[in-house]
Design goal:
Strand content: 15-25%
Number of strands: 11
Helix content: 25-40%
Oligomer: single chain
Radius of gyration: 24 Å
Largest sheet: 5 strands, mixed, barrel
Distance between the termini: 35 Å
Shape: globular
Order of helices and strands: EEEHEEHEEEHEHEHHEHHH
């Protein structure tokens, strides 16, 4: 399988789902050797570097906020025991009223959000069988859970419920490479208590089944938390924090930023629909993904310029003749080395941003009340605001041409150095402006 890395050659901006992000203005070309940091099957070197960085990242969380929601890094999330070398225990039947046995479909390092629509291509034999079973028994539903980043066969305790809405058989059109193309609606969350048949994971003979409790987030049921007066205060606090962040993003002219119009339309209510908090959670998730892509493009830009120059000088190609994919073996020895270094650097530098998005969305799923989800999302927004305030402080320090900076005008928590009058002040310096704090 080949993975490609695109050349981004435009500085124009596009408005997408409530935020502004860099857009592409011309056909990109790529080197078939480069794999992005989220590729399904990374190389041994890439995986090792990523795992080392995950360990380092956990230490970073501890240094930044030892009491914050993500202070434990990966272990901030609740994980089930690994199914590797596990044996089935207990009965396949349940007696509790709120617990049921449903299929489990683990989907890598992806976190899905309730009240969203998802399309899956089904090709593995065990999941072909799963879809046949849920169609035959009429349930048309299954649990989806995120996989642990570094431990095989270990899944998040909290997942989501996929309900099948449409299924198209495409085996004839695809030469049986893909059996079904399926459309789903994510209607709620699923808390997994145990995996009923962990021993089938290694054999891949059939799919996993879990004992789980389903929490409906479709808006069909109204809980006492949904109508709590405390929500009014938290919803206002979230809107205020979001407005402050958007103002700061525009003041700093961030490449990826929310539109000003999104402030007035920010959804904060419980339940489903356009006013649901889940819509804002999805918006934040998209923002994190776009910021990750922007950082990826930034890392690639210097190499792609050299690659374009190589193709023009050594291959005699013009702009309109640039190929869409270039073989690794067709590059010069110097460029081949740069490709390998770029792959390693992308695995290391993009991992914290990937981890941030994954952990924050998973922890929101784990929150049991609307109020607690409001509080966690506000914490994420305020953390991003602090990062940008630090960035602005650094810009002011390094761009000050009129003389020494007046430290009295900078909040103590944003100072890089200790002011003479405050001997006990803590030093705070962030080397990577894109690091998650």
């Amino acid at each position: 399988m080949k993975f490609t890395t695109e050349l981004i050659v435009a500085a124009s901006l596009a408005v997408t789902n409530g935020f502004v992000a860099p857009s592409k203005s011309r056909r990109p070309f790529a080197v078939s050797h480069i794999a992005s940091s989220w590729a399904p099957k990374p190389s041994t070197t890439t995986r090792r570097l990523a795992e080392e960085d995950l360990e380092d990242d956990e230490d970073d969380y501890d240094m930044i906020d030892s009491e914050g929601p993500l202070s434990k890094g990966i272990e901030s999330v609740s994980w089930l025991p690994s199914v590797v070398k596990s044996r089935a225990s207990g009965s396949d039947s349940v007696t509790k009223e709120d617990v049921e046995i449903i299929p489990l479909f683990p989907l890598g390092g992806i976190v899905y959000i309730p009240n969203s629509e998802q399309i899956l291509n089904i090709f593995e034999p065990r999941y072909r069988a799963m879809y046949s079973d849920i169609l035959m028994n009429g349930s048309k539903k299954f649990a989806v859970s995120m996989s642990h980043p570094t431990e095989e066969g270990r899944f998040a305790e909290m997942g989501v419920l996929f309900e099948l809405e449409d299924l198209k058989e495409v085996s004839e059109q695809t030469g049986d490479k893909i059996k079904y193309i399926c459309s789903h609606k994510v209607t709620g969350r699923v808390k997994i208590h145990r995996i009923v048949n962990p021993d089938v994971w290694a054999s891949r003979d059939t799919y996993l089944r879990v004992e789980a409790t389903v929490y409906d987030d479709s808006g069909k049921t109204v809980t006492s938390d949904s109508i709590s007066e405390d929500n009014v205060k938290e919803e206002k606090a979230l809107r205020d924090s979001f407005a402050e962040l958007v103002d700061l993003q525009h003041a700093l002219e961030e490449d990826v930023r929310f539109t000003r119009e999104s402030v007035a339309s920010l959804a904060t209510k419980p339940g489903a629909g356009a006013s649901s908090l889940w819509q804002t959670i999805r918006l934040w998730h998209s923002f994190a993904e776009q910021r990750l892509m922007a950082r990826q493009n930034e890392l690639q830009r210097d190499f792609q310029e050299k690659l374009q120059l190589f193709l023009k000088k050594q291959k005699g190609l013009k702009d309109e003749e640039m190929p869409s994919v270039i073989g690794f073996q067709d590059l010069s020895a110097e460029l081949q080395k740069e490709v390998q270094e770029l792959q390693k650097r992308m695995a290391i530098e993009l991992q914290p941003l990937t981890l941030e998005s994954m952990l924050s969305m998973q922890m929101i799923l784990e929150k049991s009340t609307h109020t607690s989800r409001l509080e966690l999302l506000r914490w994420l927004i305020e953390t991003e605001t602090k990062r940008l305030n630090t960035k602005r402080t650094l810009q002011n320090l390094f761009s000050n041409k009129g003389g020494p900076t007046d430290l009295s005008k900078i909040p103590p928590e944003e100072l890089m150095i200790k002011p003479p009058s405050v001997p006990d002040a803590k030093t705070s310096f962030y080397e990577d402006e894109d690091a998650f704090q």
